[in-house]
Design a protein that fits this description.
Blueprint: H1 5-19, E1 27-29, H2 36-43, E2 48-52, H3 69-74, E3 79-82, H4 85-89, H5 95-108, E4 111-116, H6 120-124, H7 128-139, E5 151-155, H8 170-187, H9 190-195, E6 197-200, H10 209-213, E7 220-221, H11 230-247
Parallel strand pairs: 1-2, 2-3, 3-4, 4-5, 5-6, 6-7
Helix pairs in contact: 1-2, 1-11, 5-7, 7-8
């Protein structure tokens, strides 16, 4: 819950200008619900896609205060973030409820960014693998292989989010991503696991983005506080572009 409408417009416009026609990386903005229509207009004819921060798992109905996937599509959204750590740990959403959201979002036509990750207590108790396994098995229940290209996973170590959290090292992130890819392969198949895009979302900033992008298992980043500043956001995008240029196959 950040920005006013005017601030959101300035931020989106600056990011669109900064990204330009760059196609080496995919860039998605996920503003708060009240500003989706405003930002959607600013993103038209740009390389930047629109996403939402959440949805309710029904296409319509008497669910006062909620937002449906069809509403998001109507506003121009292509993506939606589901299972964010704050939805899980602050607002109490269960794996089962998140799975309902994932299935409805994909069935309706949205691409899903599913967030998973452990708390500090869980990590200190050596439960990282068990937590990730549970969140993936329950969160992905009922999905078919043919719909997987429209799904990505974001690893959010809850203990590494924010200014006062511990800072995860690129190696710790890579190890967690490897666990996620392995479990994903067991749930579906190895081919699907190798195609899966896994983002890292633990306080990514301009000064550490390149280190995370350089890890083989890390395919992208889910940016938090740095996304509120166009210069910081664009610096992270640039780090992704530079890594893409290093790994791009020779023509």
């Amino acid at each position: 819950m950040h920005t006013t409408a005017a601030e959101a417009a300035r931020l989106a416009a600056a990011i669109v200008d900064g990204v330009g026609t760059e196609e080496l990386v995919s860039v998605v903005l996920c503003p708060p619900f009240p500003y989706l229509a405003l930002v959607s207009e600013l993103l038209k004819d740009s390389c930047v896609a629109l996403g939402a921060q959440n949805l309710f798992p029904e296409e319509e109905g008497a669910f006062t205060g909620e937002v449906s996937p069809t509403m998001l599509l109507d506003l121009g959204c292509r993506y939606v973030i589901l299972g964010h750590s704050e939805r899980r740990h602050v607002l109490g959403e269960s794996d089962r409820f998140i799975n309902q959201k994932v299935r409805v979002a994909l069935a309706t036509g949205l691409d899903v960014i599913l967030c998973v990750g452990e708390t500090l207590a869980q990590r200190d108790a050596d439960q990282t693998k068990a937590v990730l396994d549970r969140q993936l098995i329950e969160g992905l229940a009922g999905l078919s292989v043919d719909i997987l290209p429209r799904l990505s996973i974001a690893y959010e170590p809850v203990w590494a989010i924010g200014e006062h959290g511990r800072h995860a090292t690129p190696q710790q992130a890579r190890e967690a991503h490897a666990l996620i890819r392995h479990r994903f392969g067991e749930i579906f198949d190895e081919k699907a696991a190798q195609r899966l895009a896994i983002q890292y979302g633990g306080s990514v900033k301009p000064d550490n983005a390149a280190a995370f992008f350089s890890q083989q298992e890390i395919d992208g980043v889910l940016i938090g506080g740095a996304s509120l500043h166009a210069d910081q956001f664009l610096a992270i995008v640039q780090a992704g572009i530079e890594q893409s240029q290093l790994t791009k196959p020779a023509a």
